[in-house]
Amino acid sequence: MEIPKAGKVFLTEAGALSRFTGWFFHEAFRPRYEWREFIRQCFMIGFKSLPLVALTGFIMGLVLTMQLRPTLVDYGVEARIPAMVALSIVREIGPVITALIFAGKIGSGIGAELGSMRVTEQIDAMEVSGTNPYKYLVVTRVAAATVMLPLLVIMSDAISLYGGYLGVNISAITSFDLYITQVFDTLHFSDLLPAFIKTFFFGFAVGLVGCYKGYNSSKGTEGVGRSANSAVVLSSLAVFIIDLLAVQITDILGIN
Amino acid sequence: MVQTAENNNPVITITNLCKAFGKNRVLDNFSITLDQKENVVVLGRSGSGKSVLIKCIIGLLAPDSGSINVLGEEILTMDHDTLDKMRVRIGFLFQSNALYDSMTVRQNLEFPMRRHWIEISQKEAEDRVKEVLENVGLAHTIDMMPSELSGGMQKRIALARTLILKPDIILYDEPTAGLDPVTGKEISNLIKQVRETYNTSSIIISHDMKCVKATADRIGVLINGQCYAQGSYADLAASNDKNVNQFFE
Questions:
Q1: pLDDT tens-digit profile, chain B (249 residues)
Q2: Are residues A95 and A153 in contact, defined by beta-carbon separation less than 8 angstroms?
Q3: I need a labelling partner for B209 at 20 to 30 A (CA). Which of A13, A23, A121, A148 fits?
Q4: Which residues is B35 bridged to in the sheet?
Q5: Mutant choice from A40, A113, A121 vs B, greatest count of B C-beta within 10 A
Q6: Distance separating alpha carbons of residues A80 and B58, to the nearest angstrom
Q7: Distance (Å, rounded) from C-alpha B15 to C-alpha A254?
Q8: Candidates A34, A128, A134, A221, partner chain B, best to mutate (most B CBs within 10 A)
Q9: End-to-end C-alpha distance for chain B, whole angstroms
């Protein structure tokens, strides 16, 4: 049976991405380690994403609370708003929305940057300069994305919860102490841990896909645009797939 | 018409080099030598495999077969670490300059020194950066970003970055491509000046005949993947062979 052309393209791409991933693990644990570039990338990827992530997190918490209120008032469980907001944000919305924002900003940025470096021969120049470009460009960016996204998600969750507090206070007055007490009474370790662990995978996927698309960019400036675009699309898709798998795994392990 | 150059002391000897991309054989038993302190221009039409040739020499592309001997060592059988050490002795000027846009001119120039683990103090590194910038006439650009420089200035900075490791051999990929005639002439003169100042041997890939005439001690004409003809500019310009003559008309 002949494999359709689209199937061949998919399998080829999947094979290439798998090889690229294998190459990452091969290079990541061998010296020489590019610590300086890794720290620089943590700053670029993490610190420079703070304002965007903080703003979206705040809006997310505020809007979620305002949207939840009418329904919960109808059911007479208005007092459960902090608990619902906390669970929604910490377990699902916070990690996923932050990862999608991260994919849009960082995935496309990495794809365009490496793509541009590829088509202007900067990656070749690096190799000629005695640098392993994969280690210097790819390993550092993927590692930085993997480390920084969980930190951004923690910050985003905290700001979202504060946004939720303001949302609660638009229609009623609740003290911050009471709000926070209700939030922490609701949250358990089993809510925090899986949500936190999956963010490492989100970060890894966004970094890896961005690097893969950029590193293998071709066909001039058109190729750079396409790399940036497909990096966002593919890494966003990867975030949802990982999220789906994470839910299944936590379900199987009974840590819901 | 194939002439053999007098190879007293070749620093590069390429023998029967073959490289194909799919069914397209761009290099087909290509052979040429480069002598010490010689400038050899490889002349050929666009897409004829000139850039592929020098990328094989520096190890950016792996040929299918043949031999590339550089400074007495075979490139194709080298492991990665040995190749890196060899690359200190081979400079490469990219057609697109390939300056790192996120770095200043100073950082661009320091990058190869830091990466090749050259054991020099910060002061010596600083002095070397200033020296090469002065040699290309752009000392004032040291803290500028590549995007702030004109095409000709970027080419000079790229050449300065190539010179920072004081290589024995320089490979120039279309050094005057995309430059106006005046800047192109300046770059050609700079290539000659570099040879005198740094005692380098060079392979220059070009189809800009003004650059070819200004820089070549010997020309190798690349046609159908082979070194179809070799000789001085005057010899080849006087050739009756229409394949050779077409470049000189």
A1: 444 444 468 999 999 999 999 889 999 999 999 999 999 999 998 888 999 999 999 999 999 999 999 999 999 999 988 898 899 899 999 999 999 999 999 999 998 888 766 677 888 889 999 999 998 999 999 999 999 999 999 999 999 999 998 999 999 999 998 888 898 999 999 999 999 999 999 999 998 899 999 999 999 999 999 999 999 999 999 988 988 988 887
A2: yes
A3: A121
A4: B10
A5: A121
A6: 67
A7: 67
A8: A128
A9: 18
By CA distance, what is A122's nearest residue in B? Answer: B98
Instruction: Tell how far CA B38 is from the center of its chain.
Output: 12
Task: Please give the interface size between A and B, counted as residue pairs whose CB atoms are below 8 Å apart.
Answer: 45
In a domain, A110, yes or no: yes
Number of domains in chain A: 1
- Helices within chain B (DSSP H only): 50-57, 80-88, 105-115, 122-135, 151-163, 181-198, 209-215, 233-237, 242-245
Beta-strand pair B65-70/B73-74: antiparallel
DSSP run (H or E) holding B173: strand B169-173
Beta partners for residue B67, in sequence order: B15
| pLDDT digits 0-9 by tens, A103-147 | 999 999 999 999 999 999 999 999 988 888 999 999 999 999 999
B89: which DSSP letter? T
Which of A35-44, A140-149, A170-179, B3-12 is predicted with the least confidence, judged by mean pLDDT?
B3-12
Question: B193: closest CA among B136, B129, B233?
Answer: B136
Distances (CA, A) of B35 to A51, B90, B191, B196: 59, 14, 16, 15
Nearest-Cα distance to chain A for B112, in Å, is: 5
Buried b (16+ CB within 10 A) or exposed e, B197-222: ebebbbbbbbbbbebbebbbbbbbbb
The CA distance from A108 to A228, in Å, is 4
Q: Which domain covers residue A220, as residue numbers? A: 34-253
- Report yes or no on A25 lying in a domain: no
Reading the block at residue A40, the tokens are: 């620089």
Nearest residue on chain A to B118, alpha-carbon basis: A130
Interchain contact B116–A (C-beta under 8 A): yes
Q: Does A235 reside within a domain? A: yes
Residue A247: inside a domain: yes
pLDDT of residue A32: 82
CA B145/CA B151 separation, integer angstroms: 13
In DSSP terms, B32 is beta-bridged to: B14
Q: Is the link from the previous residue into A32 a cis peptide, with omega within 30 of 0?
A: yes
